[in-house]
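ok so heres the complex, two chains, lmk if somethin looks off
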Amino acid sequence: MNSRFFLTAALFVLAVLLSFLFLAAPHSSPLKWSESELEIIHSLSLASLSPPPPEASNHVSANPTAATLGKLLFSDPRLSINGEVACASCHRPEHNFTDGLDKAEAIGRSRRNTPSLVGIAYSPWFYWDGRKDSLWSQALSPLEDPDEQGGNRMFYIHLFAATPEFRRPYEQIFGLYPDVSDQSRFPLHAGPGLNTDWNNNWQQMRPEDQVLVNKVFSNIGKVIAAYERTLLPQPTRFDAYAAQLGTLDEDRELLLDSDQERGLRLFMGKARCIECHNGPLFSNHEFHNTGLLSYPGDLPDRGRIDAIPMLLEDPFNCLGEYSDASDAQCAELKYMRTGIELLGAFRTPSLRNLADTGPYMHKGQFKGLREILDHYNQAPNAMIGHNEATPLALGNREIGQLEAFLQTLMLPAPKRE
Amino acid sequence: MHRHHPSLPLRIPEFVFFFSLLLMPSSVALTHAADLPATISAHGNFKLELTPSITPVPLNRIHHWTLHLTDANDSPVDHARITVAGGMPAHNHGLPTAPAVTPDMGEGNYLIAGMRFHMMGAWVITLTIETEIAKDTAEINLTL
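and the predicted structre for the whole thing:
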């Protein structure tokens, strides 16, 4: 009799406790953060982001004249074989430097999604697979990619020679522009690549002329990079909230509501987002296989593992002759890893660029945040390689809270009164 | 300002909060490895004193460590062949870089170049040390 009474009483108390767990607790606001949680929140805040490190391989990376010329070049469609495509055609400023498409479309259609450029200066690797190790070296690729700007390096060298608004600032930055008027030495079109005529022209050029052309070509990349380096993230509502937490005024209305706060706690804890989306840019700039489905009609993308040999062979890499870095400044390239873990792995994108940048993922597989969160919650087996993520067992409400938190990274910080 | 919590129901959310703290995964704990303690290799052949070039060991920044290697008699060990491996056991993945150990700099000192850690949590760094006399491994535990 007694034991039944106690059992009933214990069940009743348990029921009360559980009802508070599921009903009362989620509505109680604000959350109380532990010291270690506060430390992590501040580590995510933009306040802990230092100015972008100088790009050692690009001696003009912090040169204002270079940045001004780079901005001009970034938006100028003359930097394409058909005169219609600029960097900004896909990296559209009004779309947070993306294009709103699954995969980029320029002269042709690219293999992958256009990533945002905001905060890109902090990454040691570029492209979804990190096949470039500097911003300037990356900037050269679309110029010669037949699906993007479609030109060849000799075409751009002649374009600069003939365009005073490019040539003048170039000479201010790098000194006298080389004389490329002799077309027997410097054909109108030449460059390594798939175009047979251009490639033949290139192969027939004298090695020292090839070096001269590569030098000017790499300088063009360096001025574009100097501009891209200035594209920095702006404070968000989350950053303003993080600053609020530093000042203890418990009665003040906090900038994150209850769901957003709980989403932040999930982000740092149960949902494990922070493992890769860490630091003030919400990215570890590393490569992970997270079991993304391939794009309809595409074979699974091998990702990072195929980028390693490309990096090592790239004449425009950090250790190459067009780089301004010393060997010691090329640590990322020198101590680059390879291995089967990198099969199907892609670079962690920053979460500071979520606004206006969908569709998301390396082939635009997901249209919205909810789909992404559902994917990580389920953590399906990878099509190739191994999915590093494991199922999260998040409930619908928790997914909603995570989404609410991510929204705070899209909202500007409120202006101070 | 003292906040008044007169009745039981108002205390329960706090109880739930602290209770939930106990349940939270360890990844929330952000402990800094300021100085790494000296490590003795598995079979006691070597003592390793490691000094990161940046302390506390940073997240997402490539840097180097120096290693001072001594034997069981505290004598410096030169000319050892040393390899570095490691990763996060909880995540079943390795290091994000391929660190390399420079040839010895004399007096038992070595440079481990290319260290970078890209996630918070528990890391294990395994050094394999081989000399004419002994081969041994040492595990360094590091929590970021």
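quick notes: The longest helix of chain B spans residues 8-23. thats all i got rn
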